[in-house]
C-alpha cells in the first residue's frame, strides 16, 4: 500500500495549520511544505522561520520535504506543485493538498494542481468566539469540477511540444515531428489546415502562444500548457 502524502503551503498561522493536520482525520505519512522562493517578499522570512518550527514538530513522526515556488506566478507555482504530485503518483501514493494556511495566490495554484491531477483538496475552517479565533470548527474537502475535455490530438500536440523543449519553431516543423510531412501538395494542405485548427483551439484555451518570427510562426507552451503536458505524460 502506498503512502498518503500531504502538500501544504505554509503561511503565517502556524497553530491553525498544525490543528488542521491533527484534526483532518486523514492518514498522513509524508508532507511537502510549500514556501516562497523569494525571501525578499513581504513576510516571507517570517514564514520561513515558522516553517522551521513546523518541520521540527512534524519530523518527529513523518517525513518532511520542502518545495519552493514563485508565489507571484499562479501557474508557475501550480506547475512546481504538479511536479511533486506527478512524482508521488508514479510511486502509487495518494496525494492530498491542504490549503488551510495558503496565501491567496497559492490557494489558486493548489486548486489548479488538484484539478489537473485529480488530487483531493481540503481546508480547515476556523472557529471563533467573541471575535477571536479559538481553534478549528471543521475540515472541509473541496469538490473539484472536471476540466474541459481536450481531444487526444491536442494532448499529443502539447506533449510533443513539451518533449521538444517547450517550443517548436514553425507549424511545418510541428507537422514533421508529429506525423511527417507528405510530398503530396493536396495532402500537405490538409495536414496544415488540420494542425492550424488544433493550434487555434489550444491558443484559445491558453495552453500555447503563437508568435510570428519572420515567415514562420513559433509555437510555445504556456505554463498552463506545461502543466497539462506533465500530467498527460
Please, could you describe this protein's structure?
This protein is α/β, with parallel strands linked by helices and about 230 residues long. Helices cover about 45% and strands about 25% of the residues. The chain contains 8 helices and 9 strands. The chain has helices at about 15-25, 45-60, 75-90, 105-115, 150-165, 170-180, 185-205, 225-230; strands at about 5-10, 30-35, 65-70, 95-100, 120-130, 130-140, 165-170, 210-215, 215-220. It has a 6-stranded mixed sheet with strand order 3-2-1-4-5-6, with helices on both faces. It is elongated, with a radius of gyration of 21 Å. The two termini are about 25 Å apart.
In short:
The chain is an alpha/beta fold.
What features would you highlight for this structure?
Arc Repressor Mutant, subunit A; alpha/beta; Rossmann fold; 6-stranded mixed beta sheet; 3-stranded antiparallel beta sheet; elongated; 233 residues
CATH topology descriptor of the largest domain: Rossmann fold
Please indicate the count of domains. 2
Inertia-based shape: elongated
Give the topology string: H per helix, E per strand.
EHEHEHEHEEHEHHEEH
The level of helicity is 40-55%
Relevant CATH superfamily of the largest domain:
Hypothetical protein VC1899 like domain (Restriction endonuclease-like)
The main pleated sheet reads as:
6 strands, mixed
Q: Count the helices. How many?
A: 8
- Global mean pLDDT: 94
**Mind telling me the C-alpha Rg?**
21 Å
Q: Tell me the span between the first and last alpha carbons.
A: 23 Å
Strand fraction: 25-35%
Structural class: alpha/beta
By CATH reckoning, the class of the largest domain would read Alpha Beta
Amino acid at each position: 500500500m502506498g503512502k498518503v502524502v500531504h502538500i501544504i503551503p505554509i503561511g503565517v498561522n502556524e497553530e491553525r495549520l498544525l490543528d488542521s493536520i491533527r484534526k483532518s482525520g486523514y492518514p498522513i505519512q509524508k508532507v511537502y511544505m510549500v514556501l516562497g522562493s523569494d525571501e525578499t517578499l513581504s513576510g516571507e522570512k517570517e514564514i520561513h522561520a515558522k516553517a522551521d518550527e513546523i518541520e521540527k514538530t512534524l519530523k518527529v513522526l513523518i517525513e518532511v520535504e520542502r518545495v519552493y515556488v514563485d508565489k507571484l506566478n499562479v501557474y508557475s507555482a501550480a506547475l512546481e506543485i504538479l511536479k511533486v504530485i506527478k512524482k508521488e503518483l508514479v510511486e502509487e501514493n495518494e496525494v492530498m493538498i491542504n490549503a488551510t494556511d495558503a496565501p491567496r495566490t497559492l490557494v489558486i495554484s493548489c486548486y489548479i494542481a488538484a484539478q489537473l491531477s485529480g488530487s483531493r483538496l481540503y481546508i480547515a475552517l476556523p472557529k471563533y468566539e467573541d471575535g477571536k479565533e479559538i481553534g478549528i470548527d471543521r475540515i472541509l474537502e473541496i469538490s473539484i469540477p472536471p476540466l474541459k475535455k481536450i481531444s487526444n490530438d491536442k494532448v499529443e500536440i502539447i506533449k510533443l511540444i513539451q518533449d521538444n523543449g517547450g517550443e517548436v519553431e514553425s507549424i511545418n516543423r510541428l507537422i514533421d515531428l508529429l506525423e511527417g510531412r507528405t510530398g503530396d501538395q493536396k495532402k500537405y494542405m490538409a495536414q496544415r489546415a488540420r494542425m492550424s485548427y488544433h493550434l487555434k483551439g489550444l491558443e484559445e484555451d491558453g495552453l500555447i502562444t503563437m508568435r510570428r518570427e519572420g515567415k514562420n510562426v513559433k509555437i510555445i507552451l504556456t505554463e498552463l500548457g506545461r502543466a497539462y503536458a506533465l500530467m498527460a505524460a
